[in-house]
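Re: the 543-residue chain
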Amino acid sequence: MFRSVIDMSDAGDAGPNFDNQLLTRSLAAYSIHYLSGVDPWGVAGSITDGGDDNGVDAIYYHEPERKMYIVQSKWIHSGSGEPPHGDMLKFVAGLKDLFNMRFERFNSKVQAKRELIERVLTDPLTTYNAVVVYTGMQSLAGPAQTDLDDLQAEMNDASELLAITVLNQSALHNSLTAKLAGEPINVDFTLRSWGKVDEPHLAFYGQIEAATIAGWWDKFGDRLFEKNLRSLLGDTDVNTEMRQTLQDSPTNFWYFNNGITIIANKVTKTIVGGSSSDFGTFHCENISVVNGAQTVSTIGRHIAKAKTSNASVQIRIISLEKAEGELGVSITKTNNRQNRIDNRDFVTLDPEQSRLRGELGVEGVTYHVIRSEGAVKGESSFDLVEATTSLACASGRPSLFVQLKREISKLWEDLNRAPYKELFNANVNSFYVWRVVQTQRMIDRMILPQMQTMSSSGRDLSIGIHGNRLISSVVFAGLPLKAFGDPTFDFQSNVTEGKIHDSVCHTCSKLKIAVDNQYPNAIIPTLFKNLKKCSSIYAEITS
C-alpha cells in the first residue's frame, strides 16, 4: 500500500535497516489512513520519521475533522511485546515540544510543516489524536500508559483537546480484516410509534432507544458512516449539548434532536408487534447512517460511560431494495446540505444588539451582528466576534478572556444572564464598544512582532500567540476605560499607537517572566485555557 508513495530517500542503501524504516513508516502512514479514512497518497507526506524526529514519526492534519494526528510507530519483528518505556517518554516529550512550538528540537521534515502546525495550533477548534501503533501483541505497559494518560489529563484540563489511540497487532489485524472483508452491517431493532411510507420508495420511521444506537456504535464504530459525507467532528458545542441532555434530561433528547437517517439495501418488518403502530421490530441489511453521525457517536460514547440511558431518538430508515439509479447517493447528498445554526445566530434577537447597531450607524460605523458573506471588517466596520473579543479583554475578568481561548460561542450561550450580560447590557454604549474594538486591533497588530523581537524561541512565540487575550486584558487595564463611553473623550489623542506599543512591550516581557516563574514546564496552548492558572498569571502581572 505504501512502498511506492513514502519518501525513503534518507533511509540509505537497501538492506535490513532500510526495510525496517520502510515498515515503520508504512505502519505510521497506515494508522492515519485507517483512523482518518484518507487514501494512501494523501497521507504519504505525513512521515517525519528519521534522525532527530524527537519521537514523532508522522504528523497529519485532517481538514474535514479539524484534527491533527501525531504518530509514533514501531515495527516489532517478533510480534510480541510493546514499545520500550523510553520510546514512550521520548514521544511524550516530543508531543509537548510540538505543542509548545519548539521547532528547533525537530528535524527538517517537521520544520517543513512549521507553517501548517503553527496555523493549526492557533485554531481553538482543532483537536489532536496522539497515536501509538506497533506490531506487538501486548498492551502498553503500565508506566508507558500512565505517561500518556498524564499528558492527556494536562491537555484536556479545560476541554477535550487530546485523544490517545493505541493500535497493537490485534487492533491492526481487526482494522485490516474489516476493511478487506467489507462485511455489510445488518441490524435488528424495535421502533415505538412507528410509521410507514410506501411510495415512491419504501421507508419506515419512529422512535428508537438510544441504548440500541449505542450498541451499534460499540459493535461497528465508524463503519456505520462509510457513505456519510461528514467526518466525526469531536467535541463541538452541539455534541457537548447533546451529551449534556443525555446526562441531565434524557427524556427530552427526542424533543431536542433532529434524529438519524439510515439507508439500507433491504428493510423487513417482522411479525412481532403485529399491525399495531405502538411498536414494531425490523430487520435491516447493509445499513449506513447518512445523516446523524454526530448523534450516533455522541450517544455511543456517552452511554458507554453512563452504562444506561432512557433516552430515545427519531429515526428514518429508507429501503433501496427497489430503487433505481443513484437514490442512495442522492439521499446522502441532500441530507447533508443543512446550514449550521451557531449560538451567535441567536444574538440577533437581543434588543441591545439592535440598539448598538443603530447608535453606531448614526456615527457612520457599520456593526455586523448577523453572519453574512458581505460582512467585511474595515476602518469603519466590525462584527460581533470582534466586539465580543474586545469587550471580554477590556473587562479585566479572567473568566471572560479565558473563555475566548476555550470557545467564544459559550459567551453567547444564554442572552439573559452572564457571561453574555456582562458584555452586552444597557450600560454599554456604542462609543465604548467601537473604541475598545479599535484598541484591540492595535494590540493585536503589535503582539507577535514584539515577541519575535524579544526572542526567536518557539516557546516564547507560542506564549505570544496563545497568551494574546491575557496580554490585551493587561494593556486595557492601564487605559482610561471609564472615559471610553464618553462622547466628548478625545480618544485619538489619549489612545495612540505609541502608547499601546509601549504597553504591549512591557506586558509581553512581564508575561514571559510570569510564565517562566509559575509554569516553566506547562504546555502553552493548554495553559491559556486554564482559568486558575491564567488568574494567577494575571494577578502577578497587574499587581
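The mean pLDDT is 88.
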